[in-house]
Specification:
The complex is a heterodimer. Chain A contains ten helices and no strands. By secondary structure, chain A is mainly alpha-helical. In chain B, helix 4 (136-146) crosses helix 6. The chains are: A mainly alpha, B alpha/beta. Chain A: Belongs to the binding-protein-dependent transport system permease family.
């Protein structure tokens, strides 16, 4: 499967972008051109490639390239952990809703209600109560996208549970736990992988939006969303500076989305047929 | 379980006056939900080593009967028992004894094998779930051999690497794994093409003879019935309209519905046998 993903141009592009993000985050742990939080009143608003600043500096004289590198850390961390939360929430709720027994219907309706709840709003409420932090963002994004995963996974699990091989397993003496572990989860795994790769993209976007709004990563931790917020008021005077974090966010989101698309194509050739809608995670409201 | 165990010794599977109905979706707001009577008072007796064929068109209640016989569904009225012991759907633990004795082969070999499991794991599943003692790997190899597959190359492959007939053989191996005395076949031949059907039929007949298996075979293939089943019962709209020895019923059907079923079988001008 990995080979098929990398052979498609979209998959390769997505993989390269994701690899760059991870690389940037790792490199920033040991080295950045300057201290990303170092304020230098002597060198504010330097243009790119001057005074050793690759992308220039902001209004406090902080190096933009270093901030971008260090911001990749938050982005990669949030995306990865939020996706883990989404996987746990999504699979957990989907199993509860899909396995036939008392209460499954209730969970299914609960999922539908939660899907209607905007993720960003949930994050803001959590941030208002518990204070804005990376973890608040992770939990909010994980739950918000997790319920979408749950809805898709539930539909998939319901169809797997109706398959003859589940009936055969029942006659073979398998209990519900074993049927879920050995038959249902392996057979919905491809769909889950695709859903979760799209959650990665949504998580990057949501983290940037939350930080931009001031509910995400608190200062002084560098974050792309907060860079945008810091810089936006000067956009008419120094239009170039907002381009860097803006592009970084857009490219990474695009990278995850392309990778998700390539994964979906690699897993299910039917999805490539024209005119057939592929399952997708709803875009954040 | 109850004191009935002394009943006629060689009857394995017995169903008495089975009723099952399903509520249908409401048609009109203030009216009652319509009801579909899938089974209305069906009896069945299967002797050790015997074989019963169940024929009937789609919707005649065959599948419902199979579900009840396998304790996958609860009857509204009537009872299923195995050697006098009541059989009721419930948690897998309470049904282990029954699952060791009664196994199933389903219709579609492309749907009844988990596409993401290796053949060895598929065949071993009942061994693990039913706590069958012994060396499972050796038993799997023995079973694959018994159904005419080479165990060496077959066991590490996935179902999609096999043809329909081979897959049905794998399904049969799985059903035989716990050493059952009753094999229920829910249209086990109808998804196979004609040439393969004959081979699988011969395999079933050979296995039944070698292992002393009792067969319950659901089918609309009258020819298969003739070759595999001593007894036959004809289901029509949830009730048994005719039953008896297969040869007698096929030679001289007494119920008009049976005659219609037989007339519907396509015939070649000169066939050696049914």
């Amino acid at each position: 499967m990995t080979r098929r993903v990398l052979r498609s141009p979209t998959g390769l592009a997505g993989a390269v972008v994701v690899a760059l993000l991870v690389l940037g985050a790792l490199v920033s742990l040991v080295w950045t051109p300057f201290d990303p939080t170092l304020v230098d009143p002597a060198s504010t608003w330097l243009p790119p490639l001057s005074g050793g600043h690759l992308l220039g500096t902001d209004g406090s004289g902080r190096d933009l390239a270093s901030q971008l590198l260090a911001g990749a850390r938050v982005t990669a961390f949030t995306a990865a952990t939020a996706t883990v939360v989404a996987a746990v929430v999504g699979v957990g709720l989907a199993v509860l809703a899909a396995v036939p027994r008392h209460g499954g219907e209730v969970v299914a309706h609960l999922i539908d209600v939660l899907v209607a709840l905007p993720t960003l709003l949930l994050a803001m409420v959590l941030a208002a109560v518990y204070g804005g932090s990376v973890w608040t963002a992770v939990v909010a994004i994980g739950i918000g996208t997790g319920v979408n995963v749950a809805r898709v996974a539930r539909a998939e699990m319901t169809s797997v549970l109706g398959a003859d091989y589940v009936l055969a397993a029942e006659v073979a003496g398998a209990g519900t736990g074993r049927i879920v572990r050995r038959h249902v989860l392996p057979n919905v795994a491809p769909v889950l992988v695709v859903q979760l790769s799209l959650v990665l993209a949504l998580a990057v976007l949501a983290e940037a939006a939350l930080s931009y709004l001031g509910f995400g990563t608190p200062p002084p931790t560098p974050s792309w969303g907060r860079m945008l917020q810091d810089l936006q008021q000067y956009v008419t005077v120094h239009p170039l500076v907002v381009v860097w974090p803006g592009c970084a966010i857009a490219v990474v989101v695009l990278g995850f989305t392309l990778l998700g698309d390539a994964l979906r194509d690699a897993i299910d050739p039917r999805m490539r047929l024209p005119g057939q809608a592929a399952p997708a995670v709803e875009v954040l409201p | 379980m109850d004191g009935e165990a002394a009943g006629s010794a060689d009857v394995l599977l017995r169903a008495e006056a089975l009723h099952r109905h399903y509520p249908l979706p409401r048609q009109r707001l203030l009216h009652r939900r319509p009801v579909r009577h899938a089974l209305r008072g069906v009896d069945l007796e299967l002797a050790a080593g015997g074989s019963v064929g169940i024929v009937g068109e789609s919707g005649s209640g065959k599948s419902t009967l199979v579900r009840l016989l396998l304790a996958l569904d609860r009857a509204d009225a009537g009872a299923v028992s195995y050697r006098g012991r009541a059989v009721e759907p419930g948690p897998p633990r309470t049904l282990r004894w029954f699952r060791r004795e009664v196994q199933v082969v389903l219709q579609d070999p492309f749907a009844s094998l988990d596409p993401r499991m290796r053949v060895a794991d598929i065949v071993a599943e009942p061994l693990e779930c039913l706590d069958v003692p012994g060396d499972h790997a050796a038993r799997v190899a023995e079973l694959l051999g018994a159904v005419g597959l080479e165990p060496g190359p077959a066991k590490d492959r996935y179902p999609h690497e096999f043809s329909g007939g081979q897959r049905q053989r794998i399904a049969i191996a799985r059903a035989l794994a716990p050493g059952p005395r009753v094999l229920v076949g829910d249209e086990p031949l109808s998804a196979l093409d004609v040439a393969v059907r004959g081979q699988v039929m011969d395999l079933l007949r050979g296995l039944a003879a070698d292992l002393g298996l009792a067969l319950v075979l659901v089918s609309h293939d009258i020819g298969a019935m003739h070759r595999l089943c001593e007894q036959i019962m004809v289901l029509h709209e949830g009730g048994v309209v005719e039953r008896g020895r297969t040869a007698d019923v096929l030679a001289a059907p007494s119920h008009p519905y049976t005659r219609r079923l037989l007339a519907a079988v396509p015939q070649l001008p000169d066939r050696e046998q049914v």
